[in-house]
Amino acid sequence: MKATISKNEHFRHLVGHGIDNVVVRYVLADSWYANAANMRFVKEQAHTDFVMALKENRKVALSLEDKQAGRYQPIKEMTPEGGVCIVWIEQLNFPLLITRQVFKNGDGTCGILYLGSSDLKLNAA
Predict the structure, then answer these.
(1) Is the pLDDT reported for residue 3 higher than 80?
(2) Which of 74, 77, 120 is nearest to 98 (CA)?
(3) What residues form DSSP beta bridges with 62?
(4) How far apart are CA 35 and CA 20, in angstroms?
(5) Nearest CA-CA partner of 93 in 48, 44, 47
(6) Does the pTM of the predicted model rise above 0.85?
(7) What pLDDT does residue 80 have?
(8) Which of 118, 112, 123 is nearest to 57 (CA)?
(9) How far apart are alpha carbons 121 and 125 in whole angstroms?
(10) Which of 42, 61, 84, 123 could form a disulfide with 66 if both were Cys (CB 3.0 to 4.6 A apart)?
(11) Integer distance in angstroms from the first to the last C-alpha of the chain?
């Protein structure tokens, strides 16, 4: 009988296998894989950076002091459009750089994309 693995275990297996075979600057992932365990794996075990889409209700702290005091807020309440800011997620021991991109869909509606990266040297562009 074949054992099933979770989508996150599968993600970490694919990233680990890919890192062993090619040099990559970033692991890119959508919000389905943007959890703390996967972020830690990419940064600490695969030794590379990531860019991941984040859900708007993801809670972040604006400083290490806020994180230590348990002061979190959803990223949709604080992320500047077109700019970047450094935030802390509760389950991570390293900060993330996040940005918000607003775009117009083909049907005229607006969409918002929140991106988080472990590379603090990036800019919004």
Answers:
(1) no
(2) 120
(3) none
(4) 22
(5) 44
(6) no
(7) 66
(8) 112
(9) 12
(10) 61
(11) 48
pLDDT digits (tens, 9 = 90+) for 65-106: 999 999 999 998 876 667 889 999 999 999 999 998 888 888
Sheet strands (E) in the chain: 26-29, 49-54, 59-60, 73-74, 84-87, 96-104, 110-117
Of the candidates 52, 113, 110, the one whose C-alpha atom is nearest the C-alpha of residue 79 is 113
Q: What angle do CA 19, 33, 29 make, to 5 degrees?
A: 60
- The rounded mean pLDDT for the chain is 88
**pLDDT above 80 for 118:** yes
Contact assessment for residue 124 and residue 84, using Cβ atoms and an 8 Å cutoff: yes
Containing 73, the helix (H) or strand (E) segment is strand 73-74
CA proximity to 93, closest of 14, 40, 46: 40
pLDDT at position 1 over 60: no
